[in-house]
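Researcher: Go.
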Amino acid sequence: MTVANFSVALLTGSQERIFGLDAQLLFDVLVQGLAVFLLFIFLSYILIEPVKKILADRQAKIQGDLASAASDKEEAAKLKAEYEEKIKQADDEASEILSAARKKAVKNEESIVAEAKEEASRIISRANQEAVLERNKVKDEVKQEIIGVATAMAGKIVESSMDDKKQAELIDETLKEMGDDTWLNK
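Model: Structure:
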């Protein structure tokens, strides 16, 4: 088809045309294009702007959450360091308490040992005193016994006519012969 035939076919509205490019079609395409463009602008105003706003709000919320998480993490690290320091101080305090308790136990042990030594010394001293008293008592009893025997002897001698002076000399002489060693209880 030639251009002239094409234009005649266009004007006459014959059905021979392959692509019917007439004014109505161009107008319809132009109106549809304009409608699609207006619909796009309208939908973008109604849908895209709220979606952008929702996304911006969500992004701001996420940034806030990240900042909050970072500050929480930093605070947790500070608290952890603080608690570790407190635990270290508690351990140091516990070791100080144990050390003080050990020192106190050693002092108590020393004082108990010293008291026990003093008590043993007092017991030994008391036992020595009691032994001395017992020795003196036995010595006195032996003297009394000897005096009793000497008196009985003297009584028998007196009966055989001895005077008091002679009797006293005899007792003194007997005591001197026996001496002090006789009275000691060894």
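Model: The two ends are 169 Å apart (CA to CA).
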